[in-house]
Design brief:
141 residues, mainly alpha, 0% strand
């Protein structure tokens, strides 16, 4: 086998399970895109068992927990993502959505306003503005 190709191939255990963070994340994303919430959660937890500071894994673990209806766990996970990467706008948006979904509109507004400050042209801008309007909140400059 070509040495360069061999180095780029993710390590796998004997049972074919991924071992590299990149492969675990890829598998988690695949499960997530298929709506396989439980399986995605397992993969994100595996990533975090290797790299406990992986903001992406915390972000999407939180999203999957939210989709499963586990708001407390979801809030914790996206909070961890923001601890390790305060500029993670996906996590900021998700924490606002989770707070909003749990009826914590003031907390949601704080995250939404911070999202707009840090990512004024971000992908979730329209949704954030709509949700702020729905709860009658405005961002202070």
């Amino acid at each position: 086998m070509n040495a360069a190709l061999e180095r780029s191939t993710p390590a796998q255990s004997r049972n074919g399970e991924p071992q590299s963070i990149e492969e675990l994340l890829a598998r988690a994303r695949q499960y997530m895109s298929q709506g396989a919430v439980r399986e995605a959660i397992v993969q994100y937890i595996k990533v975090l068992s290797i790299d406990h500071r992986n903001s992406e894994a915390y972000t999407y673990l939180g999203y999957m927990q939210y989709m499963a209806g586990h708001l407390k766990d979801a809030r914790w996970a996206v909070g961890q993502a923001l601890i390790f990467d305060p500029r993670n706008m996906q996590a900021r948006y998700l924490r606002g959505r989770i707070a909003f979904g749990g009826g914590r509109t003031k907390k949601a507004a704080e995250d939404f306003c911070e999202y707009l400050r840090q990512a004024p042209l971000g992908a979730y801008r329209a949704d954030v503005k709509r949700l702020l309007g729905a709860v009658g909140e405005r961002c202070r400059r």
